[in-house]
Amino acid sequence: MSQIQVVKVFFARYREHDIDGMLAMFSQDARIDYVPMRMEGPVGEAGKTIWRALMDGFPNLSNQVTAVYSDDAQRTAVAEVTITGTQARDVLGIANRGQSFSLPHVFIVRMGTDSSIEFMRAYWDSAAFYAALTPTVA
To answer: Per the database record, which ranges form the SnoaL-like domain (predicted)?
Structure first.
């Protein structure tokens, strides 16, 4: 499977809220780094924690992959992904106000020679995320 296909399959499983399927795409020693949240570590721990929290807090959590770029020599792919959802429960220290968000993300994904994901790093505008979920009352 190509790097681009791996990324697209990962985000299709993410849209389905298939955490086990998402985890199956990673190598045994894989790590993630969700930079704005300062959450990093083994995917089996850190990945499960963040994805379960997001899917619980945003039951309609979804994503749209808008672009994927790859570098065959480096086994790296970069994905532009818009993630959306409507908050239904308190999550990540944010009280539920029933607000929605739509936020562009960038994921850098490094693959192993067997097409498994060895490392994933994610970036997004954390201030925009919190602003969407905690609007000020005028």
So the answer is: 9-114
List pLDDT tens digits, range 32-48.
999 998 899 999 999 99
Which residues face 110 on adjacent strands?
76, 119
What pLDDT sits at residue 113? 85
- Prediction pTM value: 0.93
100-111 vs 76-86, strand pairing mode: antiparallel
Residue of 104, 107, 112 whose CA lies nearest to 132: 104
The full set of domains in the chain, from first to last, is 3-133 (3.10.450.50)
Q: Report which of 38, 8, 16 is spatially closest to residue 117, judged by C-alpha positions.
A: 8
> What would the pLDDT profile of 8-24 be if each residue is shown by its tens digit?
999 999 999 999 999 99
Contact (Cβ atoms closer than 8 angstroms) between residue 44 and residue 32:
no
Task: Pull the structure tokens for residue 33.
Answer: 């780094």
| Tokens (6 digits) for 31 | 């790590």
Which among 123, 124, 122, 126 is positioned nearest to 32, based on CA atoms?
Answer: 122
